[in-house]
Each structure stands twice: as structure tokens, then as C-alpha cells.
Amino acid sequence: MEYKSKTGRIDTVSKVIAASPHTIYQAFINPDALIKWLPPEGMWGEVDQLEPHAGGKYRLILYYEGEQTSEGKTSEYSDVSEGTFIELIPDMKVVMAGAFDSENPDFEGVMIMTWYFEEILEGTKITVIAENVPPGISKEDHSDGLSSSLENLEYFVETR
């Protein structure tokens, strides 16, 4: 998959979670764990493919629950994202290049998602940087969705 870094819009969110970077990283590379926390509020999902190594592929399907204010990117009720893992540094960083399976040009393009895990006194500071965000995703909705996923991750790792 061809990708370019640092192009288009960039969205970022951060959160401190009371867990080790190792625990966070494991929740990211384990498909059963990933799908429990990644879908933002109002969605659920499934992992169709997850090969967590540089050059490995992934395919995630997220479904909207109940009433929604907008149509899904792939179908009326779903978003399908697929791509490649660019870099994985255990307990420190995950970089993914992915695109939505969509016929709508507003959702076209390869988005680069970089997840940083920084060990701090309180646990781990997670920073997500999304580069080349498609124009069909509003900045507010994207920030809310990323923040929701991080809240889900916090709940997942702190209640295991």
C-alpha cells in the first residue's frame, strides 16, 4: 500500500492510563483484546485480519449500534478499514497505514495512525497522531472517536 506521511489534516489525542506500556501494547496486538476496546462508543466490531508485524496486514470491521446521525463509510451501518503495519516497537509505538473501503471520495486516501506509549509515573501516556485524515471525517467526530477508544482501552486494561 502506498502512503505518504505528514500530508493532509492531522488529528491527535492523548490520555494517561494507569497501566504499563507492555500491557497497553499487548492490548493492541492481540485481536481478541483489540476489538474489545478499539470501537468507539456506539459501535462494535470484528477483526477480520491482524498480522502485527512490520509489513503485516490488518482488516477491521466496525458496526454502528442502533440509531446513528450519519451513514457508515462502507455501508449504511459499517466502516471497514484495511491496511498495513508500518512499524511496531514493542511497548513504545505502533504505526499503521490504512484506508476505508468506501465509494465516497470524501473517505478516500491512506491515513497514517501512530500510537505512542510513553511510560510515566502514573502509568502510560498514550498519544495518537492521525495524519492525512479524510475530509469526510470531521475533526470533532474524529477526536471524539479517538478519545472514546482510549477511554475504552483504559477501562479494558484497568479491569482485567
From TrEMBL:
Every Activator of Hsp90 ATPase homologue 1/2-like C-terminal domain range: 19-156
Superkingdom in the source lineage: Bacteria
InterPro entries: ASHA1/2-like_C, START-like_dom_sf
Xref: Pfam families: AHSA1 (PF08327)
UniProt-listed SUPFAM superfamilies: Bet v1-like
Family that this chain belongs to: Belongs to the AHA1 family.
Name of the featured protein: Uncharacterized protein YndB with AHSA1/START domain
Organism listed in the record: Alkalibacterium olivapovliticus
